[in-house]
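Justification of resources, computational component.

The compute hours requested in this renewal are based largely on the per-chain cost of generating structure records like the one below. Each record pairs the submitted sequence with a full structure-token output. That output is archived, and it is also reused by downstream analysis tasks.
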Amino acid sequence: MANIYYDQDADLNLLKSKKIAVIGYGSQGHAHALNLRDSGADVRVGLYPESASRARAEAEGLRVLSVASACQEADVIMLLVPDTKQPAVYKSEIEPHLTPGKTLMFSHGFNIRYSQIIPPPSVDVSMIAPKGPGHRVRELFVEGIGTPCLLAAQQDASGQAKQFALAYAMGIGGTRAGVIETTFTEETETDLFGEQVVLCGGVSALVESGFNTLVEAGYQPEIAYFECLHELKLIVDLMYQGGLSYMRYSISDTAEHGDYTGGPKIITDESRATMKKILADIQSGAYAEEWIDENATGRRWFNEQREKSQTSLIEQVGKPLRKMMPWLNPKGTT
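The structure output for this chain reads:
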């Protein structure tokens, strides 16, 4: 069973004795910086001078420095820029100031797991990964609750890497909900697998394939959209609240029967073999190499797929339908 830590297992005084630099002020960055500040930590935000986030951070009363200056004066550096940008930022702005005794932290293990960042052995390397988007990390903290987090201590030069990571988790509200101990390898590999097989790749492909099957059979696209995309949230919310059993308890018997009969026909032995192949590519580093190369060569294929997906039939049908439901707070990418 996993080791899970709570408020009583953490010492916030460890956090208050350090100068902390949060690098980046996006979804996670703003939540970490504000929560840490409200917990009494000495926080500064590291941003490029032209960053669009600078004004927002300063408006919140945070001290904003250049990335290099923030890293130079900090004892603890939490790197929260996108994974694809982290190696370059680390090499030019962080590594020159990563002196012995400092701590380098992450909220995702990709660049450590695949050796895109190799810190010196004289520093602690740890991870606190909230299991929720940054706006919820902030909202729940303000409400006095918290977001569950994952914790990993990759490198323990000081002998206190894990204890400090727990203090950091407490500072952003994680120990209120619970902090699960893991490793950089486990967090990275399971995260990538979940994204590709279920949460993003699997669900997106299933939704669009189901939609296209109905449309090609002559059904109205609007009806297909409601059945294959819109109502998905209703089912996911039930799973989120109480697992698969609660979802099945809450739906009709006909829908539950369709769950038992249809699911095994969609997820077949061939599907499961493909899942294992995806996992093997993640574990071997083949997927990471592909994604790193894609970024290094201008993202041509990635950008083509993005444009193609944004102009698909299901997207064209969905935009006007979502406008019929203003309570959804409809969003768009174009």
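The chain has a mean pLDDT of 96. The chain has 18 helices and nine strands.
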